[in-house]
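Question: Hello, beginner here. Any chance you could explain the protein record under this note? Any guidance would be welcome.
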Amino acid sequence: MKQLEIDEAKARISELIRKAAVGESYVIADDGKPLARIIGYEENITSKRAKLFGCMRGQGQVAKDLDFKAFCREEIAEMFGLETTD
């Protein structure tokens, strides 16, 4: 992750945002002290979702008769780190 001082980031904000949108990230600093981070929007959503559900990994089971149209039972179990049951 690249670090930039506030003045440089201010001068290049449009460029930094476009690059963040495709996966790059930047730390904005003041006199070398990190203050903020610029990351792409999707990266932000993914990391929050991973933290939210990651804390529950292995804490349950998915029944075999689960009828969920968007995902199959095995995908749900894998996504949450669960075992399937009969």
